Amino acid sequence: MTPHLSSPDPAARRHLLKLALASAGTLWLPRGAFAQRRLAFDPFGLGVASGSPAPDGVVLWTRLVAPGLMDSLGTEPVPVRWEVAEDEAFARIARRGETLATPDLAFSVHAEVPGLAPDRWYFYRFIAGGVASPVGRTRTLPAPDAAVSRLRLAYASCQRWEHGYYGAYRHMREEGVDLVLFLGDYIYEYPNATAAVRNFPTLANVITLADYRDRHALHRSDPLLQAMHAACPWILTWDDHEVQNDYAGGLPGDGRPFGLNNTADFQARRNAAYQAFYEHMPLRAADFVRAAAGGSLVHEVKLARRYRFGRLADLVMLDSRQWRDAQVCGDPSHRSGLVDPATCAALDDPARTLLGPAQEAWFDGAMAQAGGGWTVIGQQTLFGRRDNLHGPGERVWNDGWDGYVAARRRLTDSLQRHRVRSPVFLGGDVHENWVGHVKADYARPDSPSVGVEFCGTSITSRSARGATTASRLPENPHFIFAEGTRRGYGICEFTPQGLTTTLRVLDDATRPDPRVETLATFAVQAGRPVVERR
Ligand SMILES: [Fe+2]
Ligand 1 centroid vs 183 CA: distance in angstroms? Predict the structure, then answer.
Protein backbone atom coordinates (compact mmCIF):
# COMPACT_ATOMS: atom_id res chain seq x y z
CA MET A 1 0.00 0.00 0.00
CA THR A 2 1.20 3.48 -0.81
CA PRO A 3 2.00 5.56 2.27
CA HIS A 4 -0.20 8.64 2.69
CA LEU A 5 0.26 11.85 4.59
CA SER A 6 -2.22 10.49 7.08
CA SER A 7 -0.28 7.31 7.71
CA PRO A 8 1.44 6.84 11.09
CA ASP A 9 4.68 8.36 12.20
CA PRO A 10 3.44 11.89 12.93
CA ALA A 11 6.88 12.91 14.16
CA ALA A 12 8.32 12.26 10.72
CA ARG A 13 5.51 14.20 9.06
CA ARG A 14 5.97 17.10 11.45
CA HIS A 15 9.67 17.13 10.73
CA LEU A 16 9.06 17.13 6.99
CA LEU A 17 6.60 19.98 7.18
CA LYS A 18 9.03 22.00 9.24
CA LEU A 19 11.60 21.41 6.53
CA ALA A 20 9.08 22.54 3.94
CA LEU A 21 8.39 25.67 5.95
CA ALA A 22 11.98 26.36 6.92
CA SER A 23 12.33 29.39 4.67
CA ALA A 24 8.78 30.60 5.14
CA GLY A 25 9.55 33.33 7.70
CA THR A 26 6.79 34.63 9.94
CA LEU A 27 3.84 36.90 9.38
CA TRP A 28 2.45 36.94 12.90
CA LEU A 29 1.49 40.31 14.29
CA PRO A 30 1.82 41.42 17.93
CA ARG A 31 -0.76 39.93 20.23
CA GLY A 32 -2.16 40.80 23.62
CA ALA A 33 -3.13 38.70 26.59
CA PHE A 34 -6.63 37.27 26.61
CA ALA A 35 -8.49 35.52 29.39
CA GLN A 36 -9.01 32.01 28.02
CA ARG A 37 -7.57 28.60 28.63
CA ARG A 38 -4.04 29.17 27.40
CA LEU A 39 -2.40 27.24 24.61
CA ALA A 40 1.34 26.71 24.78
CA PHE A 41 1.65 27.28 21.04
CA ASP A 42 0.28 29.43 18.22
CA PRO A 43 -2.75 27.59 16.74
CA PHE A 44 -3.04 29.95 13.72
CA GLY A 45 -0.45 28.26 11.53
CA LEU A 46 -2.84 28.22 8.55
CA GLY A 47 -3.62 31.95 8.74
CA VAL A 48 -7.00 33.65 8.45
CA ALA A 49 -9.38 34.31 5.58
CA SER A 50 -12.71 35.89 4.76
CA GLY A 51 -15.29 35.33 2.07
CA SER A 52 -18.95 34.89 1.13
CA PRO A 53 -19.44 38.67 1.44
CA ALA A 54 -22.90 40.23 1.75
CA PRO A 55 -23.95 43.87 2.12
CA ASP A 56 -24.34 43.39 5.88
CA GLY A 57 -21.74 40.76 6.71
CA VAL A 58 -19.02 38.34 5.79
CA VAL A 59 -17.67 34.91 6.80
CA LEU A 60 -14.42 34.87 8.76
CA TRP A 61 -12.36 31.70 8.57
CA THR A 62 -9.52 30.07 10.39
CA ARG A 63 -8.58 26.54 11.36
CA LEU A 64 -6.75 25.82 14.58
CA VAL A 65 -3.78 23.52 14.16
CA ALA A 66 -1.00 22.08 16.28
CA PRO A 67 2.53 23.37 15.66
CA GLY A 68 3.26 20.64 13.08
CA LEU A 69 0.06 21.67 11.22
CA MET A 70 -0.83 18.04 10.55
CA ASP A 71 -0.81 16.76 14.13
CA SER A 72 -3.89 16.23 16.27
CA LEU A 73 -5.25 19.03 18.43
CA GLY A 74 -6.96 16.41 20.57
CA THR A 75 -10.64 15.71 21.10
CA GLU A 76 -11.78 18.69 23.17
CA PRO A 77 -13.52 21.62 21.44
CA VAL A 78 -11.65 24.92 21.69
CA PRO A 79 -13.52 28.21 22.29
CA VAL A 80 -12.59 30.86 19.74
CA ARG A 81 -13.43 34.55 20.00
CA TRP A 82 -13.57 36.79 16.96
CA GLU A 83 -13.53 40.54 16.64
CA VAL A 84 -14.35 42.83 13.72
CA ALA A 85 -13.16 46.43 13.96
CA GLU A 86 -13.27 49.58 11.90
CA ASP A 87 -9.59 50.22 12.57
CA GLU A 88 -6.46 48.11 12.49
CA ALA A 89 -5.74 48.84 16.17
CA PHE A 90 -9.15 47.36 17.13
CA ALA A 91 -10.09 50.54 19.02
CA ARG A 92 -13.50 50.76 17.32
CA ILE A 93 -15.02 47.29 17.52
CA ALA A 94 -17.92 46.81 15.13
CA ARG A 95 -18.88 43.28 16.12
CA ARG A 96 -17.54 40.46 18.27
CA GLY A 97 -18.60 36.93 19.03
CA GLU A 98 -17.53 33.49 20.17
CA THR A 99 -17.75 30.07 18.63
CA LEU A 100 -16.42 26.56 19.22
CA ALA A 101 -13.81 24.91 17.04
CA THR A 102 -14.64 21.21 17.12
CA PRO A 103 -12.67 18.12 16.09
CA ASP A 104 -15.41 16.77 13.78
CA LEU A 105 -14.73 19.72 11.44
CA ALA A 106 -10.95 19.71 12.03
CA PHE A 107 -11.16 22.68 14.44
CA SER A 108 -12.16 24.95 11.57
CA VAL A 109 -13.97 28.20 12.34
CA HIS A 110 -16.60 29.75 10.06
CA ALA A 111 -17.81 32.87 11.86
CA GLU A 112 -20.80 34.40 10.05
CA VAL A 113 -20.63 38.05 11.03
CA PRO A 114 -23.92 39.99 10.82
CA GLY A 115 -24.78 43.64 11.22
CA LEU A 116 -21.95 45.30 9.31
CA ALA A 117 -22.28 48.39 7.13
CA PRO A 118 -22.28 47.93 3.33
CA ASP A 119 -19.35 48.69 1.04
CA ARG A 120 -16.60 49.21 3.57
CA TRP A 121 -13.36 47.69 4.77
CA TYR A 122 -13.06 46.05 8.21
CA PHE A 123 -10.27 44.41 10.18
CA TYR A 124 -10.71 41.11 11.99
CA ARG A 125 -8.87 38.67 14.21
CA PHE A 126 -9.46 35.55 16.25
CA ILE A 127 -8.37 34.77 19.81
CA ALA A 128 -7.96 31.17 21.00
CA GLY A 129 -6.11 29.81 23.99
CA GLY A 130 -4.83 33.28 24.85
CA VAL A 131 -3.26 33.69 21.43
CA ALA A 132 -4.38 36.27 18.88
CA SER A 133 -4.37 35.47 15.18
CA PRO A 134 -2.84 37.60 12.47
CA VAL A 135 -5.09 40.51 11.53
CA GLY A 136 -7.11 40.18 8.35
CA ARG A 137 -8.83 42.81 6.26
CA THR A 138 -12.19 42.24 4.64
CA ARG A 139 -14.89 44.13 2.81
CA THR A 140 -18.67 44.01 2.66
CA LEU A 141 -20.63 44.21 -0.59
CA PRO A 142 -22.32 47.48 -1.55
CA ALA A 143 -26.07 47.78 -1.04
CA PRO A 144 -27.85 46.17 -4.02
CA ASP A 145 -29.20 49.48 -5.32
CA ALA A 146 -26.04 51.52 -4.69
CA ALA A 147 -24.31 53.41 -7.47
CA VAL A 148 -20.82 51.89 -7.44
CA SER A 149 -18.10 53.61 -9.42
CA ARG A 150 -15.45 50.87 -9.48
CA LEU A 151 -14.85 47.17 -8.79
CA ARG A 152 -11.32 45.84 -8.99
CA LEU A 153 -10.79 42.10 -8.66
CA ALA A 154 -8.06 39.54 -9.24
CA TYR A 155 -8.83 36.15 -10.80
CA ALA A 156 -6.58 33.15 -10.25
CA SER A 157 -6.54 29.36 -10.48
CA CYS A 158 -4.38 26.22 -10.37
CA GLN A 159 -1.79 26.46 -7.63
CA ARG A 160 -0.06 23.08 -7.46
CA TRP A 161 2.21 23.48 -4.44
CA GLU A 162 5.22 21.55 -5.63
CA HIS A 163 5.21 23.14 -9.12
CA GLY A 164 6.45 26.47 -7.82
CA TYR A 165 6.31 29.27 -5.29
CA TYR A 166 3.39 31.56 -4.61
CA GLY A 167 5.25 34.75 -5.57
CA ALA A 168 2.18 35.64 -7.68
CA TYR A 169 0.35 36.40 -4.44
CA ARG A 170 3.12 38.71 -3.23
CA HIS A 171 2.48 40.85 -6.31
CA MET A 172 -1.30 40.45 -6.27
CA ARG A 173 -1.30 41.92 -2.78
CA GLU A 174 0.12 45.15 -4.18
CA GLU A 175 -2.62 45.48 -6.83
CA GLY A 176 -5.18 47.04 -4.47
CA VAL A 177 -8.02 44.65 -5.29
CA ASP A 178 -11.39 44.52 -3.53
CA LEU A 179 -11.72 40.80 -4.02
CA VAL A 180 -10.01 37.61 -5.23
CA LEU A 181 -11.94 35.20 -7.45
CA PHE A 182 -10.36 31.77 -7.20
CA LEU A 183 -11.59 29.57 -10.05
CA GLY A 184 -10.44 26.07 -9.16
CA ASP A 185 -7.60 23.66 -8.44
CA TYR A 186 -6.82 25.15 -5.04
CA ILE A 187 -5.07 21.88 -4.12
CA TYR A 188 -3.81 18.97 -6.20
CA GLU A 189 -4.49 15.42 -5.13
CA TYR A 190 -1.47 13.81 -6.81
CA PRO A 191 1.69 12.25 -5.44
CA ASN A 192 4.80 14.36 -5.61
CA ALA A 193 5.48 15.85 -9.05
CA THR A 194 8.44 14.84 -11.15
CA ALA A 195 11.08 17.57 -11.01
CA ALA A 196 9.26 19.17 -8.09
CA VAL A 197 10.25 22.73 -7.27
CA ARG A 198 9.19 22.36 -3.64
CA ASN A 199 9.61 19.01 -1.99
CA PHE A 200 7.43 17.32 0.58
CA PRO A 201 8.69 13.78 0.23
CA THR A 202 5.67 11.90 1.58
CA LEU A 203 3.18 13.31 -0.94
CA ALA A 204 1.01 10.41 -2.08
CA ASN A 205 -2.41 10.13 -3.67
CA VAL A 206 -4.95 11.92 -1.49
CA ILE A 207 -7.86 9.63 -0.59
CA THR A 208 -9.07 9.87 3.01
CA LEU A 209 -10.44 12.81 4.98
CA ALA A 210 -7.14 13.03 6.87
CA ASP A 211 -5.28 13.06 3.54
CA TYR A 212 -7.39 15.92 2.15
CA ARG A 213 -7.02 17.91 5.37
CA ASP A 214 -3.25 17.49 5.25
CA ARG A 215 -3.08 18.49 1.58
CA HIS A 216 -5.09 21.65 2.23
CA ALA A 217 -2.83 22.38 5.22
CA LEU A 218 0.25 21.97 3.02
CA HIS A 219 -1.02 24.44 0.41
CA ARG A 220 -2.32 26.79 3.10
CA SER A 221 0.98 26.70 5.00
CA ASP A 222 2.46 29.07 2.41
CA PRO A 223 2.86 32.55 3.97
CA LEU A 224 2.25 34.39 0.69
CA LEU A 225 -1.04 32.59 0.13
CA GLN A 226 -1.99 33.32 3.74
CA ALA A 227 -1.15 37.00 3.32
CA MET A 228 -3.34 37.29 0.21
CA HIS A 229 -6.23 35.64 2.04
CA ALA A 230 -5.73 38.14 4.87
CA ALA A 231 -5.74 41.10 2.45
CA CYS A 232 -9.32 40.92 1.11
CA PRO A 233 -12.29 38.56 0.80
CA TRP A 234 -12.08 35.62 -1.59
CA ILE A 235 -14.95 34.10 -3.56
CA LEU A 236 -14.13 30.59 -4.70
CA THR A 237 -15.30 27.82 -6.85
CA TRP A 238 -13.52 24.53 -7.43
CA ASP A 239 -12.52 22.32 -10.33
CA ASP A 240 -11.52 18.65 -10.41
CA HIS A 241 -8.27 18.52 -8.42
CA GLU A 242 -9.95 19.44 -5.16
CA VAL A 243 -11.22 15.83 -5.48
CA GLN A 244 -9.68 13.87 -8.38
CA ASN A 245 -8.48 14.63 -11.90
CA ASP A 246 -11.39 14.81 -14.39
CA TYR A 247 -14.07 13.42 -12.08
CA ALA A 248 -17.66 13.97 -13.18
CA GLY A 249 -20.40 14.34 -10.58
CA GLY A 250 -20.50 11.02 -8.74
CA LEU A 251 -18.14 9.26 -11.14
CA PRO A 252 -14.40 8.89 -10.54
CA GLY A 253 -11.97 10.50 -12.96
CA ASP A 254 -8.75 9.11 -14.27
CA GLY A 255 -8.62 6.25 -11.84
CA ARG A 256 -5.51 7.17 -9.92
CA PRO A 257 -4.57 5.46 -7.74
CA PHE A 258 -5.47 2.44 -9.82
CA GLY A 259 -7.43 -0.17 -7.95
CA LEU A 260 -9.47 2.47 -6.14
CA ASN A 261 -11.76 3.44 -8.90
CA ASN A 262 -15.24 2.10 -8.32
CA THR A 263 -18.19 4.38 -7.73
CA ALA A 264 -18.77 3.43 -4.09
CA ASP A 265 -15.14 4.06 -3.16
CA PHE A 266 -15.28 7.29 -5.10
CA GLN A 267 -18.35 8.50 -3.21
CA ALA A 268 -16.47 8.13 0.09
CA ARG A 269 -13.46 9.88 -1.40
CA ARG A 270 -15.59 12.73 -2.77
CA ASN A 271 -17.33 13.12 0.59
CA ALA A 272 -13.94 13.44 2.27
CA ALA A 273 -12.73 15.95 -0.30
CA TYR A 274 -15.89 18.04 -0.05
CA GLN A 275 -15.73 18.12 3.74
CA ALA A 276 -12.08 19.15 3.75
CA PHE A 277 -12.82 21.86 1.18
CA TYR A 278 -15.55 23.28 3.41
CA GLU A 279 -13.27 23.06 6.44
CA HIS A 280 -10.62 25.17 4.69
CA MET A 281 -12.70 27.84 2.96
CA PRO A 282 -14.65 30.90 4.17
CA LEU A 283 -18.05 29.36 3.41
CA ARG A 284 -21.29 29.49 5.37
CA ALA A 285 -22.32 26.51 7.48
CA ALA A 286 -25.40 26.10 5.28
CA ASP A 287 -23.15 25.68 2.23
CA PHE A 288 -21.99 22.26 3.46
CA VAL A 289 -24.77 19.67 3.35
CA ARG A 290 -24.45 16.10 4.53
CA ALA A 291 -27.42 14.40 2.91
CA ALA A 292 -28.56 10.78 2.98
CA ALA A 293 -29.32 9.51 -0.51
CA GLY A 294 -30.37 5.94 -1.22
CA GLY A 295 -28.95 4.64 2.05
CA SER A 296 -25.57 6.30 1.68
CA LEU A 297 -24.18 9.64 2.74
CA VAL A 298 -23.67 12.19 -0.03
CA HIS A 299 -21.93 15.43 0.84
CA GLU A 300 -22.73 18.57 -1.11
CA VAL A 301 -21.04 21.96 -1.15
CA LYS A 302 -23.05 24.89 -2.49
CA LEU A 303 -20.80 27.18 -4.49
CA ALA A 304 -23.19 28.48 -7.16
CA ARG A 305 -24.20 31.91 -5.92
CA ARG A 306 -24.96 35.43 -7.09
CA TYR A 307 -23.18 38.42 -5.56
CA ARG A 308 -24.35 41.94 -6.37
CA PHE A 309 -21.92 44.86 -6.46
CA GLY A 310 -24.61 47.51 -6.34
CA ARG A 311 -25.82 48.51 -9.80
CA LEU A 312 -22.29 48.17 -11.22
CA ALA A 313 -21.98 44.38 -11.51
CA ASP A 314 -23.50 41.01 -10.74
CA LEU A 315 -21.10 38.15 -10.09
CA VAL A 316 -22.59 34.72 -10.79
CA MET A 317 -20.41 31.84 -9.58
CA LEU A 318 -20.89 28.41 -11.12
CA ASP A 319 -19.95 24.85 -10.20
CA SER A 320 -19.36 22.67 -13.26
CA ARG A 321 -17.99 19.62 -11.40
CA GLN A 322 -20.44 18.51 -8.76
CA TRP A 323 -23.49 17.91 -10.95
CA ARG A 324 -22.09 17.13 -14.39
CA ASP A 325 -22.82 14.14 -16.59
CA ALA A 326 -20.00 11.86 -17.67
CA GLN A 327 -17.61 12.87 -20.45
CA VAL A 328 -18.24 11.08 -23.78
CA CYS A 329 -16.17 9.57 -26.59
CA GLY A 330 -12.88 9.78 -24.66
CA ASP A 331 -10.36 7.22 -23.52
CA PRO A 332 -12.33 4.18 -22.28
CA SER A 333 -10.17 3.88 -19.15
CA HIS A 334 -11.02 7.30 -17.79
CA ARG A 335 -13.38 8.98 -20.29
CA SER A 336 -11.66 12.34 -20.68
CA GLY A 337 -9.48 13.29 -23.65
CA LEU A 338 -9.32 15.02 -27.01
CA VAL A 339 -12.18 13.84 -29.21
CA ASP A 340 -13.23 14.33 -32.82
CA PRO A 341 -16.60 16.11 -32.88
CA ALA A 342 -17.29 14.71 -36.37
CA THR A 343 -17.51 11.21 -34.92
CA CYS A 344 -19.04 11.99 -31.52
CA ALA A 345 -22.71 12.95 -31.80
CA ALA A 346 -23.08 12.60 -28.02
CA LEU A 347 -21.17 15.88 -27.53
CA ASP A 348 -24.32 17.64 -28.79
CA ASP A 349 -26.81 15.51 -26.86
CA PRO A 350 -29.26 18.00 -25.30
CA ALA A 351 -29.92 15.59 -22.43
CA ARG A 352 -26.36 16.01 -21.15
CA THR A 353 -25.50 18.76 -18.69
CA LEU A 354 -22.38 20.30 -17.17
CA LEU A 355 -24.09 22.27 -14.37
CA GLY A 356 -26.98 19.92 -13.61
CA PRO A 357 -30.63 20.79 -14.30
CA ALA A 358 -31.18 22.67 -11.04
CA GLN A 359 -28.14 24.91 -11.46
CA GLU A 360 -29.01 25.56 -15.10
CA ALA A 361 -32.50 26.70 -14.09
CA TRP A 362 -31.02 28.84 -11.32
CA PHE A 363 -28.60 30.42 -13.81
CA ASP A 364 -31.46 31.26 -16.15
CA GLY A 365 -33.31 32.88 -13.24
CA ALA A 366 -30.21 34.89 -12.33
CA MET A 367 -29.95 36.09 -15.93
CA ALA A 368 -33.63 37.09 -15.86
CA GLN A 369 -32.78 39.34 -12.90
CA ALA A 370 -29.53 40.70 -14.33
CA GLY A 371 -29.34 44.44 -13.91
CA GLY A 372 -28.11 46.92 -16.48
CA GLY A 373 -24.50 46.63 -15.33
CA TRP A 374 -21.85 43.97 -15.87
CA THR A 375 -22.71 40.29 -15.51
CA VAL A 376 -19.54 38.49 -14.47
CA ILE A 377 -19.74 34.71 -14.72
CA GLY A 378 -17.06 33.01 -12.63
CA GLN A 379 -16.53 29.36 -13.54
CA GLN A 380 -13.81 26.74 -13.82
CA THR A 381 -12.62 26.53 -17.38
CA LEU A 382 -12.36 27.83 -20.92
CA PHE A 383 -15.87 28.62 -22.16
CA GLY A 384 -15.36 29.07 -25.89
CA ARG A 385 -14.91 26.33 -28.45
CA ARG A 386 -11.28 25.47 -29.07
CA ASP A 387 -10.02 23.23 -31.87
CA ASN A 388 -6.71 21.75 -30.78
CA LEU A 389 -5.79 20.09 -34.09
CA HIS A 390 -3.71 21.93 -36.65
CA GLY A 391 -5.00 21.73 -40.21
CA PRO A 392 -8.12 19.90 -41.41
CA GLY A 393 -10.37 18.22 -38.87
CA GLU A 394 -10.97 19.10 -35.24
CA ARG A 395 -10.10 17.81 -31.79
CA VAL A 396 -11.84 19.24 -28.75
CA TRP A 397 -11.23 18.60 -25.06
CA ASN A 398 -14.26 16.69 -23.81
CA ASP A 399 -13.78 17.53 -20.10
CA GLY A 400 -14.63 21.24 -20.58
CA TRP A 401 -17.53 23.11 -22.21
CA ASP A 402 -16.53 21.65 -25.61
CA GLY A 403 -17.64 18.30 -24.24
CA TYR A 404 -21.09 19.66 -23.36
CA VAL A 405 -22.04 21.65 -26.45
CA ALA A 406 -25.82 21.72 -25.93
CA ALA A 407 -25.37 22.77 -22.29
CA ARG A 408 -23.13 25.65 -23.37
CA ARG A 409 -25.68 26.67 -25.97
CA ARG A 410 -28.39 26.79 -23.29
CA LEU A 411 -26.25 29.27 -21.33
CA THR A 412 -25.64 31.55 -24.30
CA ASP A 413 -29.33 31.26 -25.26
CA SER A 414 -30.18 32.40 -21.74
CA LEU A 415 -27.90 35.44 -22.11
CA GLN A 416 -29.64 36.36 -25.36
CA ARG A 417 -33.17 35.61 -24.19
CA HIS A 418 -32.78 37.91 -21.18
CA ARG A 419 -30.81 40.51 -23.17
CA VAL A 420 -28.02 40.45 -20.61
CA ARG A 421 -26.18 43.65 -21.38
CA SER A 422 -22.50 43.04 -20.58
CA PRO A 423 -21.57 39.40 -19.92
CA VAL A 424 -17.96 38.62 -18.96
CA PHE A 425 -16.84 35.02 -18.47
CA LEU A 426 -13.84 34.37 -16.23
CA GLY A 427 -12.23 30.92 -16.09
CA GLY A 428 -9.12 28.90 -15.28
CA ASP A 429 -8.08 25.24 -15.61
CA VAL A 430 -6.08 25.43 -18.84
CA HIS A 431 -2.87 26.93 -17.35
CA GLU A 432 -2.78 29.36 -20.31
CA ASN A 433 -4.18 32.85 -20.90
CA TRP A 434 -7.01 32.93 -23.48
CA VAL A 435 -9.00 36.05 -24.34
CA GLY A 436 -11.90 36.22 -26.76
CA HIS A 437 -15.53 36.58 -27.72
CA VAL A 438 -18.37 34.39 -26.51
CA LYS A 439 -20.37 33.39 -29.58
CA ALA A 440 -24.08 32.74 -29.89
CA ASP A 441 -23.20 29.66 -31.97
CA TYR A 442 -19.59 28.50 -32.13
CA ALA A 443 -20.40 26.36 -35.17
CA ARG A 444 -21.09 29.53 -37.19
CA PRO A 445 -18.15 31.98 -37.22
CA ASP A 446 -20.47 34.78 -38.39
CA SER A 447 -22.87 34.36 -35.47
CA PRO A 448 -23.03 37.33 -33.09
CA SER A 449 -20.79 37.82 -30.11
CA VAL A 450 -22.87 37.75 -26.93
CA GLY A 451 -20.12 38.42 -24.41
CA VAL A 452 -16.39 38.31 -23.75
CA GLU A 453 -14.16 35.80 -22.07
CA PHE A 454 -10.92 35.89 -20.07
CA CYS A 455 -9.56 32.46 -19.15
CA GLY A 456 -6.57 32.84 -16.87
CA THR A 457 -3.23 31.14 -16.56
CA SER A 458 -2.15 29.23 -13.44
CA ILE A 459 -0.53 30.53 -10.27
CA THR A 460 2.06 27.71 -10.40
CA SER A 461 0.73 24.64 -12.25
CA ARG A 462 2.69 23.79 -15.37
CA SER A 463 1.36 24.19 -18.88
CA ALA A 464 1.46 21.18 -21.18
CA ARG A 465 1.59 23.24 -24.41
CA GLY A 466 3.66 26.26 -23.47
CA ALA A 467 5.14 28.00 -26.49
CA THR A 468 2.76 26.42 -29.04
CA THR A 469 -0.36 27.84 -27.38
CA ALA A 470 -0.81 30.81 -29.70
CA SER A 471 -0.50 28.62 -32.82
CA ARG A 472 -4.08 27.50 -32.21
CA LEU A 473 -5.48 31.04 -32.62
CA PRO A 474 -5.94 31.04 -36.44
CA GLU A 475 -8.31 28.07 -36.29
CA ASN A 476 -10.23 29.57 -33.38
CA PRO A 477 -10.87 33.14 -34.58
CA HIS A 478 -13.32 34.03 -31.80
CA PHE A 479 -10.24 34.18 -29.56
CA ILE A 480 -7.97 37.20 -30.01
CA PHE A 481 -5.11 36.28 -27.67
CA ALA A 482 -3.46 33.15 -26.26
CA GLU A 483 -0.22 32.61 -24.35
CA GLY A 484 0.87 29.52 -22.50
CA THR A 485 4.37 29.90 -21.13
CA ARG A 486 3.69 32.33 -18.29
CA ARG A 487 2.20 31.81 -14.84
CA GLY A 488 0.31 34.60 -13.07
CA TYR A 489 -3.17 36.08 -12.61
CA GLY A 490 -5.54 38.64 -14.11
CA ILE A 491 -6.85 41.97 -12.84
CA CYS A 492 -10.30 43.18 -13.90
CA GLU A 493 -11.34 46.74 -13.23
CA PHE A 494 -15.01 47.44 -13.87
CA THR A 495 -16.54 50.91 -14.07
CA PRO A 496 -20.01 51.85 -15.36
CA GLN A 497 -18.39 52.73 -18.69
CA GLY A 498 -15.88 49.96 -19.27
CA LEU A 499 -13.81 46.99 -18.23
CA THR A 500 -10.02 46.93 -18.31
CA THR A 501 -8.39 43.53 -17.91
CA THR A 502 -4.66 43.28 -17.32
CA LEU A 503 -2.84 39.95 -17.58
CA ARG A 504 -0.05 39.94 -15.00
CA VAL A 505 2.64 37.29 -15.43
CA LEU A 506 5.77 36.18 -13.60
CA ASP A 507 9.22 35.83 -15.06
CA ASP A 508 9.67 32.50 -13.26
CA ALA A 509 7.19 30.87 -10.85
CA THR A 510 9.81 28.29 -9.86
CA ARG A 511 11.77 30.96 -8.00
CA PRO A 512 10.71 32.18 -4.53
CA ASP A 513 10.85 35.87 -5.46
CA PRO A 514 9.79 36.29 -9.10
CA ARG A 515 9.29 39.59 -10.91
CA VAL A 516 5.89 40.47 -12.35
CA GLU A 517 5.06 42.26 -15.58
CA THR A 518 2.07 43.03 -17.76
CA LEU A 519 1.64 40.52 -20.58
CA ALA A 520 -1.27 42.33 -22.26
CA THR A 521 -4.13 44.72 -21.47
CA PHE A 522 -7.66 44.55 -22.90
CA ALA A 523 -10.62 46.91 -22.96
CA VAL A 524 -14.36 46.23 -23.19
CA GLN A 525 -17.02 48.94 -23.38
CA ALA A 526 -20.15 48.42 -21.32
CA GLY A 527 -23.01 47.14 -23.44
CA ARG A 528 -20.77 46.14 -26.35
CA PRO A 529 -19.55 42.50 -26.46
CA VAL A 530 -16.24 43.29 -28.11
CA VAL A 531 -12.83 42.85 -26.49
CA GLU A 532 -9.91 44.85 -27.88
CA ARG A 533 -6.25 44.69 -27.07
CA ARG A 534 -4.87 48.01 -25.92
FE1 LIG B 1 -5.17 22.99 -12.92
Answer: 10
